[in-house]
Fold each of these.
Amino acid sequence: MIPRHLLIGVAVMLVIVLSMGIYLRQMSRAAVERQRLAEDNRPVMPPASGPTETVTLYVADDAAGMLRAQPAQIPLPEGRQQRAEELLRALLRIYTRSDSPHPLAPAADLRSVYLIDPGVAVVDMNAAFADQHRSGILTEQLTVDSLVQTLATNVPGIARVRILIEGNTRETLAGHADLTQFFDVNAVAQAITQAAQ
Amino acid sequence: MSSATSKAKNSFIVVLAVVLLAAAPAADQKKISIYSSVATYSLPVVDHAGHEYVGLLEILEPLGRVSASTAGRRWTLRYNNLDCEFFSGKTRARIRKRDFDLSAPFLIENSRGLVPLNSLSALLPRFLGNSVTFHEAARRLFIGDIATQVSAQFDAANPPRLVLNFTAPVNPTIATEPGKLRMVFLREPLVPPGTPSLFFDNPVITQANFSENNGVAELSIAATAPLMASFSNNARTITVASASQTPAAPTSAEPVPTVSGQPASIPGIAPPLPPPSRVRVIVDPAHGGTERGAALTDTLPEKTVTLGFARLLRAELQNQGFSVTLLREGDDTLTPDQRAGTANAAHAALYIILHADSQGSGARVFTALLPSSSPNHGPFHAWTTAQTDALPLSQAIAFAVLTAMQKHQIPARGYPASLRPLNNVLIPAIAVELAPGSNGISDLPSANYQQKAAAAIADGVSSLRDRLGAQP
């Protein structure tokens, strides 16, 4: 016959062990979530305001090795600069989807677009955009062409585009596409037409 | 007056001698041809202290995974999982921790490890585990059980015919000259028949000779009348007959291959094979050293694939008569400015930079993406748009290479790209990016796949040889 106080003691111990197990599990989950949030450096952007417009995004398609014109309805603000930024963010949303035809890193994002008259657009991307970009001439060129052509088509008056990473000049996007030069909008448009033939 | 004439004569003779001496090395460039089941390629042979040498890394590169490094006088090489070390100026080497004696001292030249040619028969089986047959006098090396045999059947009917049957398809370069038809086999592992010379008791076709020299095999047919050759049986049979009394063509006869774009089946009055023009091409294996390029697999950087591919392209271009300079022979770091500067200073006719990509399939050929209006004025060129004047010819070459790729059944497309140093190069310039073939990523380091692509590039470039030759 087991004494009653011993049974009560064992039961209390079991309850304590079980509670500690549950507590540790919750602590572990919280740590993983904190880590995930820390690694996700995507800025939390307020939704763009303004009337919705139909625009043409030039989306890179790796399988076809070319850009495809894709109409999209997105809210666009009044200002040219904000409009340019929203266009590129809409493009990046396509590229960061899991089923993207030209995947970019989920953390790839636009920092700003600066429009400098006459006809210059400076696109400032975040580090993840370049650091985690796949390496290859065609892959990188499609990304560049897509950004340049989308901007030039939907924001009138842009003749040359420069791409910066975190506000600085970078030699190449991921080892190939030259980012030290301005991209001539007409030359890129001709190249896209030529590649599509 | 007579003194002036004599002086002019002497000057002419001196100039002629200088020109002949300058031309001699190009015409007599020594090479070794290597035939294996995975690749066929030719490499330059270097003379030193009475011995002939060849680069060991270059021999092994198409056959497996190989890397080499130099530390002072010590040169180490890893082929697949086999390590060996050689010492400059010494004949003793260590292979798999065992001693091996070369027939002449090992040499290091620009980080390239050179071994004497007459040690290859004993040296290569240590690496390859295969038998090696070396026709040393002809510099033709056969790895494993690879050989194409030829047998001849003479039909004395009117008109007489000589039917040559080969055990594998062949594609020789054919040239005719008065009294002779020559077939030169550059890529085929053709071995000598039992009797190298056959004599025919016939007034038209009198003799057939097999010879091999400087990495190529040659069959020559002597005749008293012009001859022509036709192919049949999927290029396994070549029928040689009198051109003036051409027999009924075989049912599956195919057109004969061409020499420099001209039909080779010209009757015997056709001029002999023209000497190949030495148009110079710069081949640049992209990346290198600390700049590894794309990670094609976990263990395969782009820089390794581009170097192997460049060596095969060099061999293919040399086989087509081009003079080729590799911009890097080893694992060196070069900036885009250094690459462009070297290419511009070399006064070559063409610059080709090679890349590789694990995504997509086939190959891509790129030309420079330049602004639609050029800032170049007068004799000065802006560094960033130096390619402007040469761009039309670059695009023509890119198109020719794409066409040749398609003929070799490699899917290929062309694009303009903002890729340095294409825009900084003054001469025609293209970039070729090799992507996986039908077997996926394993194709990229495969010498067989690379050689197919290299042959296509060489064919494309060769088709515009005349326009390249006109370049400064």
Note: The mean pLDDT of chain B is 82.
Amino acid sequence: MSSKIIYEQQGVTDDEAEIVSLLKNDFEKVKVGEVIAEVETSKAIIEVEANNDGYIKYNTSLNETVRAGDLIATIGESHEELNEQSKNSNKDLVKEDSKEKSISAKTLKIAKSLAISMDTLKDQKIYTVEEINAYIEGNTAEKISNLNESLLAKFNKVNPSKNKLSEIDSLQISQSQTLPCSCSIILEEFNIKSFSKTNKLYFDNMFPVIAEICSQELKTFKNLNGFFHDRKKYFYEDINIGFTIDTNDYLQVPVVHNCEKYNKEEIQNIFFELLKASTTEKITLSQMSKPTFVISDLSSVGNCFFHTPLLAPYTSAILGLAIDKKASRLVLSLTYDHQMSAGKEALLFLEAIRFKLLNESN
Amino acid sequence: MTKNEVFCSVQNIFKNIFNNDDMVITYSTNSDELENWDSLNHINLMSAIEKEFNIKFALGELIELKNVGAIVNLMINEKLK
């Protein structure tokens, strides 16, 4: 049975595109997933893939404009079948002839990424991206209710607006997965000894100062104080900042809750009590629960860029810092969920911290 | 207690915390010299001293106590009076 490759709308405004290359010859053998054409929308050149193994026959020509729903090519099991098809079919029939509907390559790709079987696609009569999106929406409804709110800090839910992230939405990121990205900035000529003395820091540990600054900035950079779940953004109302302690045996993340309510001296007191509780193994579960943002200090290692591919569950960012005492250098690295924030926002956040640190130093 | 007695007790606590019976400290030994004298082990040290001498250190004091001499002096002049 033949398969049809149909042009699908690529964005909100792009309902048509131009065929800029046809990469095969008519009746040439193709394999599923192989790129057979390229179309140019107003934003990008998009590859069109074969949705089946077989022989290809184009229904469009180079530089032709195609609209959503137009037939780009047909893939048949034999040359004869293709010849027969070309006699009987035309572009308009494709939209109407539901009996011969085939699953689009993009739909197959999404199904594959979410481990949805071919049988499910056929049973549910899923052929297009819209149909698989609708299926996933329905299928995830139950899972959304499974979000255990008692384990999380207070949050507000927001549906993503039609912004750049909607392009990522189309990839259908599965449940609570993150797309971690990282960026770093360096503060040269940073004298930790003098900074520590000025701010009366415990063992040169910058957490109280950084946590105070982050608490202020996270009120503005809300995307870094939330999480992404079921294609929706959630923003925490509180700012609970966790910090990592490596006890050699295991890693702990005690949390300073409602950090935004405290100044750096108060944060240092809480930080010290948590540190003490952790060291003496008297820390409680509630003291390690509901972080909304995490800071990890790798200054004991020294000169390093701290990039982690992992984020704490139900958070969207982790700030790594490392002080190289010999080189008088401070490196700030932010790993963030790209579904929540763009790179520019992450860098602006780091810049805001740098600006305030420089003010604290002077 | 004499200053020397306090120092000897503190030295034993250091040996115990850093798990090194051959460890030798002086009044000038400080956290920059001892690799493992970090913020976590500082808490372990101070907690052990507090327990041994039945005293309490404030956070502000702990921040300043970066060498053995400062620890012993604070104990002799303030805590053990």
Note: The radius of gyration of chain A is 27 Å.
